[in-house]
Recover the amino acids of this structure.
């Protein structure tokens, strides 16, 4: 494992704790800037939360990469940071609803799924299930472990919600294209 860790820390320059931290910070600042323009705007608040969850993920991922040598510290930062990807699809979907001035009960289902994800995140012990931390990478999971399948589920969930949102809003706005041209 040490050889893999050394190799990745020397070759992986696209994913670095400093880059991840600065990206997260810039997203948080962008969200705060937009929110400061009109704190009463529902659209601006939802835009802030979308940026907040992505920024939280990036910043905490930076700390989990930085503390790769101390599994318990890296795991704490990973768990705090992974709140972001859990709620990113919800915030994305909610942003689309607010932007289009539409309402849909699917949002409550997404909150329910996210609550289950949070429970799994904070009440499962991933340290004994094939997870380790690598420099400039963050968490690394062995195949065929619960952690691996859980993270794959998160990616699939985000893809499905994105696809569902695209189809829903295409259907909602077919024939209403002039609304956005004004």
């Amino acid at each position: 494992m040490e050889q893999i860790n050394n190799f990745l820390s020397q070759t992986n320059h696209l994913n670095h704790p400093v880059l991840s931290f600065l990206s997260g910070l810039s997203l948080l600042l962008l969200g705060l800037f937009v929110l400061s323009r009109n704190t009463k705007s529902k659209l601006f608040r939802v835009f802030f939360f979308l940026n907040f969850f992505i920024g939280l993920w990036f910043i905490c991922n930076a700390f989990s990469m930085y503390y790769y040598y101390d599994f318990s510290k890296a795991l704490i930062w990973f768990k705090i940071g992974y709140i972001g990807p859990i709620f990113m699809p919800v915030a994305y979907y909610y942003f689309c609803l607010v932007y289009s001035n539409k309402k849909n009960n699917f949002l409550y289902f997404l909150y329910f799924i996210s609550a289950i994800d949070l429970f799994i995140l904070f009440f499962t012990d991933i340290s004994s299930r094939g997870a380790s931390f690598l420099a400039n990478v963050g968490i690394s999971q062995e195949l065929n472990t619960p952690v691996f399948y859980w993270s794959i589920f998160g990616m699939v969930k985000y893809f499905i919600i994105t696809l569902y949102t695209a189809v829903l809003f295409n259907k909602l706005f077919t024939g209403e294209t002039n609304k956005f041209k004004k």
The mean pLDDT is 79.
